[in-house]
Design brief:
Elements: E1 3-9, E2 14-20, H1 29-43, E3 53-59, E4 62-68, E5 72-74, H2 75-79, H3 86-105, E6 108-109, E7 118-121, E8 126-128, E9 135-136, H4 171-174, H5 182-197, H6 207-216, H7 222-225, H8 231-240, H9 252-268, H10 270-279, H11 294-311, E10 323-326, E11 330-331, H12 339-354, E12 360-361, H13 364-367, H14 377-384, E13 388-397, E14 400-409, E15 415-424, H15 428-442, H16 449-456, H17 463-475, H18 479-496, H19 501-514, H20 523-540, H21 545-557, H22 561-574, H23 579-591, H24 595-608, H25 615-624, H26 628-641, H27 646-658, H28 662-675, H29 680-692, H30 696-709, H31 721-727, H32 730-742, H33 764-773
Parallel strand pairs: 10-12, 10-13, 11-13
Antiparallel strand pairs: 1-2, 2-4, 3-4, 5-7, 6-9, 7-8, 13-14, 14-15
Helix pairs in contact: 3-5, 3-9, 5-8, 8-9, 12-15, 12-17, 17-18, 18-19, 19-20, 19-21, 20-21, 21-22, 21-23, 22-23, 23-24, 24-25, 25-26, 25-27, 26-27, 27-28, 27-29, 28-29, 29-30, 29-31, 31-32, 32-33
């Protein structure tokens, strides 16, 4: 709210700071009142940990405050997204507590304690700034008095209005309640949390999300973000952040005493001794034991040590685990634009661990749902049915990147292992490899020699190459515009380093997405790009599981069934935890008529991606098996969890038509068309449903809309087949079957099993088409 100048007091020969109001708000009475209030409030305080105010003046209509001049920086700048060392934290925190205690004793509540309002001098002392939101109360006759305070002057805000800075507000401040000194202590706790971790205790994209976190959620335990923190410091932070102010610190003096006690113990080395004692706690031998025989003592010692070992594992001791989840790593760089780096490192670690056959690793799709979540580790572990969870953070500083990772037991929230890694960006792949190898070692997973080789595989990569690659991944799922941006990023990475295989994999996947039915890219353009990029990736890295899976999908679309099967199997051999590859293989099995095998592969994908939309595939398979009720039930459950997921409505439309409920299908498919911006696929199925419902004119109008659109943009030939079959115009359907064959339309993959093709299965033209597509072999059809 102010502009500050360095000035010289010519009379007293000293430097001072002059704080003026900005031009645009100088005429606002409320702001002027608050400005004067700041001067009067702060001038009543004379304390080494509060910035002193010397005078209040006016020059040519401009009000200003004359303040103590300070050399240094704000605490916000000092933190800069990085945790401070414990010694600095304690020293500064004690200063802040001293300053708050002085203000509270004078009856002043600051109400806007945050890192930007605390100054760290060049000598390392803290001073509290900016009393513009301060509240004057009767001077406290008893330090730490918990009674609600009374305002002595006309309030600057209306009753029930929250004041302060959102992320540091107390619960009672958020609710607009009457405040007392304990609101400052909560805000101080939030500042202390940030000093210790480098990140805010309460975060969110909107004010509402932050308010909800303050009122309802506990912040991530500080020690998870900074394992070096003393246990007592975490306790102090937690007590300051108690949501019930009756359970919080009742005075700054009380909080200061705990901080001073911890500093004393830390300085004397007692904290280190206590930590060692916690890690290896010897059995206590009471006096009466000494009267027992030597053999009895020995037995009791062995039993005691054994029980202790069972109950309190050393943090560095490995443990045998079968199922693991990697939470999205936190971006602690202080720059939201670095989010792609944290997500990319998370993906890379998941990908490396997924190559271990003896370990179930939850997929990225499910794990990204926990990004910025405040759920506890036990809650997450229970939801995902895993035994352990990996948490981590990423901090980038220029050309260096620092990664902290912790392995936490799901049931008990105990730390099994933690470690920090600090590397140059060019060594980022080696860093990811080291993290994954350490985790694999700590969970005692059985790792074959081939898996170990893949885990350890790393090479140097130029930072600008890896950044382009990660940015391509980061934007890839954001619709057609996101796909096109990702292609540009991947191509940029390839230009900078033509030997970087992951960029080719990303490019192949992006072109595959662009060529999908729903986006509408022409397969004639996109498929060669997919195949070329995937083959180049495998030429550079034959062990790349993703590249094998992408190539398998491309082979399947071109009806190279045996090549597709071989590539899927190779992909799953290299990465048995790849849910996308399991889904792709399920699709291949479905096309062969192997319904039960397809369901098994789909269910395996669901185990690996329990929060994703893998139930969608099961619904699609059940539709082709003519198990319509099961299909509808499965797809409705997907829609219930993902109410705006267009593909779920699309597949539900198929199942409803199959069950003979075209009118209900029309309602669903109108929503589908809206969600898909009237894509060719959505209009195809809407036309089919109308034809089945007897609305012939509507169906023909939709077919005509598709034909008109095809004159200016790509419309797959396959979208005309089902509407004409539903209308009973089989000759027209075969015209479009033939055109679909010429362009290798996706729908022809399902010739053997698709229920809508049943009316023409005995037609010689259809039998010939099956032969040409490579699906004429007599394979047992388990679904019919």
């Amino acid at each position: 709210m102010g502009i500050v100048y360095k000035a010289e007091d010519a009379r007293l020969g000293r430097f001072v700071a002059l704080k003026f109001l900005p031009e645009e708000i100088v005429k606002q009475p409320q702001t002027l009142s608050r400005f004067g209030r700041e001067a009067k409030t702060a001038s009543a305080l004379n304390h080494p940990n509060i910035c002193m105010v010397f005078d209040l003046g006016e020059q040519e209509g401009h009000a200003f405050i004359v303040m103590e001049f300070l050399n240094g920086m704000t605490l916000k700048a000092r933190i800069a997204g990085k945790p401070l060392d414990v010694e600095s934290v304690l020293s500064l925190a004690i200063d802040i507590a001293e300053g708050l205690n002085a203000a509270h004793t004078k009856g002043i509540i600051h109400r806007d304690i945050k890192p930007a309002n605390i100054f760290v001098t060049e000598h390392g002392h803290a001073k509290i700034l900016d009393f513009g939101l301060a509240k004057m109360t009767p001077a406290l006759s008893k330090i730490g008095a918990a009674e609600a305070t009374l305002t002595m002057e006309e309030p600057l805000t209306s009753p029930g209005t929250a004041v302060g800075t959102v992320a540091y507000m107390s619960p009672e401040q958020v609710q607009g309640k009457e405040l007392d000194i304990r609101t400052d202590l909560f805000s101080f706790g939030a500042v202390l949390y940030e000093m210790c971790t480098g990140t805010q205790a309460f975060r969110g994209q909107t004010t509402g999300v932050i308010f909800n976190s303050i009122l309802e959620r506990q912040p991530i335990p500080p020690v998870r973000l900074n394992p070096e923190l003393p246990e007592e410091l975490e306790r102090i932070i937690n007590k300051a952040l108690e949501k019930d102010r009756q359970l919080r610190y009742q005075s700054a003096a009380e909080m200061r005493a705990d901080l001073q006690r911890l500093k004393r113990d830390t300085d004397s080395g007692r904290t280190a001794v206590a930590a060692a004692e916690r890690r290896v706690k010897p059995p206590v031998i009471y006096g009466w034991w000494l009267k027992a025989g030597a053999a009895t003592i020995l037995v009791l010692l062995i039993l005691s040590a054994g029980l202790w070992r069972m109950q309190r594992r050393s943090p560095n001791e490995s443990t045998e685990l079968k199922a693991l989840a990697v939470l999205p790593f936190q971006n602690l760089s202080g720059d939201p634009k670095q989010e792609y780096l944290a997500d990319g490192i998370t993906d890379a670690i998941i990908d490396r661990l997924s190559g271990i056959h003896g370990l179930r690793v939850i997929s990225r799709t499910s794990m990204m749902r926990f990004k910025n979540s405040h759920q506890s580790v036990p809650e997450i572990a229970k939801q995902l049915h895993v035994e352990a969870v990996v948490e981590g953070s990423v901090r980038r500083e220029g050309t260096r990147v620092r990664v902290g990772a912790q392995l936490i037991r799901g049931a008990t929230d105990d730390h099994i292992w933690s470690e920090d890694y600090d590397r140059e960006m060019r060594d980022i792949l080696a860093l990811e490899s080291d993290v994954a190898q350490s985790i694999a070692g700590k969970v005692r997973a059985t790792v074959t020699s081939g898996e170990h080789t893949r885990l350890a595989a790393a090479r140097n990569v130029a930072p600008e190459v890896y950044e382009s690659y990660l940015k391509g991944q980061f934007v890839q799922g954001d619709g057609q515009a996101g796909i096109e941006k990702s292609i540009a990023y991947f191509e940029d990475a390839i230009r900078k380093d033509p030997t970087f295989a992951p960029a080719y994999v990303g490019l192949a996947e992006a072109y595959g997405d662009l060529g999908s039915l729903f986006v509408g890219g022409s397969p004639a353009v996109t498929r060669p790009q997919v195949i070329s990029a995937a083959r180049k990736a495998l030429e550079l890295d034959p062990q790349n599981a993703e590249a094998h899976a992408v190539l398998a999908g491309a082979h399947q679309e071109q009806w190279r069934w045996s090549e597709a099967e071989a590539e899927y199997k190779r992909a799953l051999d290299l990465n048995p935890n790849d849910s996308a590859a399991h889904l792709g293989f399920a699709d291949w099995l479905l096309c062969q008529g192997r319904i039960e095998d397809a369901l098994a592969s789909s269910r395996r994908a669901r185990e690996l991606d329990p929060l994703g939309v893998t139930g969608l595939q099961e619904g699609w398979i059940l539709f082709h098996a003519r198990r319509y009720e099961e299909s509808i039930r499965e797809l409705r459950s997907v829609v219930a969890v993902h109410p705006d997921y267009a593909t779920a409505y699309f597949f539900l439309g198929f199942a409803l038509i199959g069950k003979g409920q075209p009118e209900e299908a029309i309602t669903v498919l109108e929503k589908t068309a809206s969600l898909m911006d009237r894509s060719p696929g959505s209009l195809e199925l809407l036309a089919t449903a109308n034809a089945k419902a007897g609305h012939r004119a509507v169906a023909l109008r939709l077919i005509d809309e598709l034909k008109q659109r095809g004159k200016t943009s790509y419309v797959p030939a396959g979208v005309f087949i089902n509407p004409y079959l539903a209308l009973g115009d089989y000759d027209q359907a075969f015209v479009w079957f033939e055109r679909a064959y010429q362009e290798k339309s996706n729908i022809l993959q399902f010739l053997r099993v698709h229920p809508f093709f049943d009316p023409v299965r005995q037609d010689p033209r259809f039998v010939d088409l099956l032969r040409r597509v490579g699906l004429a072999e007599q394979v047992k059809d388990e679904g019919r």
